[in-house]
Amino acid sequence: MTATAARAPACAATRADDGGACGAPRRPSSSSPRGRDAEPRGTVRAPERGARRGITWDTPPVESTDEPQHPQYFHGTRATLRPGDLITAGHRSNYRDDVVMNHVYFTARRDGGGLAAEIAALLGPEDAEPHVYRVEPTGPFEDDPNVTDKKFPGNPTLSYRSTEPLRILEEVGDWTRLTPAELDLWRERLAAMRESDAEIIN
Predict the structure, then answer these.
(1) Does 50 share its domain with 130?
(2) Model-level pTM?
(3) What is the pLDDT of residues 168-197, one digit of tens each?
């Protein structure tokens, strides 16, 4: 809801003895029972230039009192999970079998979760299927240094990690699938990463 500045009541001319709409008494003149300068009934006077209209100059009007929406977080995987399940750290990396991950990873971008799910399925058994879940962090989290400040400026992918579990809220299906050409490209990238022993900031 948008708050607007309170308007002072419009000054409509009324009888001389009722104080007027703005509370200022009007004095009749000898030539007119309503006063020489009185305005016709129902006339709305424009506010004087510089009138504050119920607010102070140093207090800007509040544009909105709506609470900001809480962001949603997503985790992509090849695992089949149910609402209430917890995703915990301590599992081997999808990219390096010799690395046990100290964090769980998630993103505020739905399609980012979809990409992670597609990659996890590519690295799994032939019948592996990608799944994207809306998750809830159960503890503090930080920007994922693998795709943010340590390698790229800022956090353009809205990627995060936590040492605390993620709670599954629901599976989501409205995310963008990779095309066959994009899947082939990622197969090549993943193979190159494994051959080069690409660093994982764990």
Answers:
(1) no
(2) 0.62
(3) 999 999 999 999 999 999 999 888 877 776
